[in-house]
Structures are given as structure tokens and as C-alpha cells.
Write a structure and sequence with these properties.
mainly alpha
Length: 99
């Protein structure tokens, strides 16, 4: 995924979406940032983000989203927005080795 630059407008959005860490750290992993954005961004936030994130990058973020960030409703919404219905299962956390 293409890196998302730390501009003043993205910094404002990043501070609101991932409030618990500095914007530079939040943007260091754009796929994780996009997962939080899919779950927490407002329409206005997403308009700013979409100025820097292509459809290809957005789809990659959905494919590689870390588990536990995106809620089921947001997962379904974003997949529907990209004509991916029915959506695949949400990412799942795994612990240890599977047997």
C-alpha cells in the first residue's frame, strides 16, 4: 500500500481516529491506519483520507486488515461500497499453532 503522507489535514484526522498514539506512528502502518479509519472515520474524515488513498490501496487495506479493529457493520459497509458482496469473513485472531 502506498504510504499516507503526514500533512496537516491527515494529522488532524489521525489524531481523532487513532487518539492513543502519535499521528506519525499511526501512519507508519497505512493498512492498520485504514482499518481504524474504516471503523471510526466520519464522512468528512474519509473525504480527506480518500484524497491520498486510491481504490487499489483501499482494497489492499481491506484484504490485509488486522483482526479486531473493524466491527462487523463497518466490514459489511465497506465491502458493499466496493461491490464485494457478500463480504468475506472478518479477520480472526489466532493464538499459537493451529492443529
Amino acid at each position: 500500500m502506498t504510504p499516507i503522507p503526514l500533512t496537516p489535514e491527515i494529522e488532524t484526522v489521525a489524531r481523532r481516529i487513532i487518539w492513543f498514539e502519535e499521528p506519525a506512528k499511526a501512519l507508519a502502518n497505512p493498512i492498520r491506519f485504514m482499518a481504524y479509519a474504516m471503523a471510526r472515520a466520519t464522512h468528512e474524515d474519509m473525504k480527506v483520507i480518500r484524497g491520498y488513498v486510491s481504490d487499489t490501496d483501499f482494497l489492499e487495506a481491506m484484504e490485509k486488515a488486522p483482526p479486531g479493529i473493524i466491527d462487523p457493520r463497518s466490514w459489511a459497509y465497506w465491502h458493499l461500497k466496493f461491490d464485494r458482496f457478500p463480504p468475506p469473513p472478518l479477520p480472526v485472531r489466532t493464538f499459537g499453532e493451529s492443529r
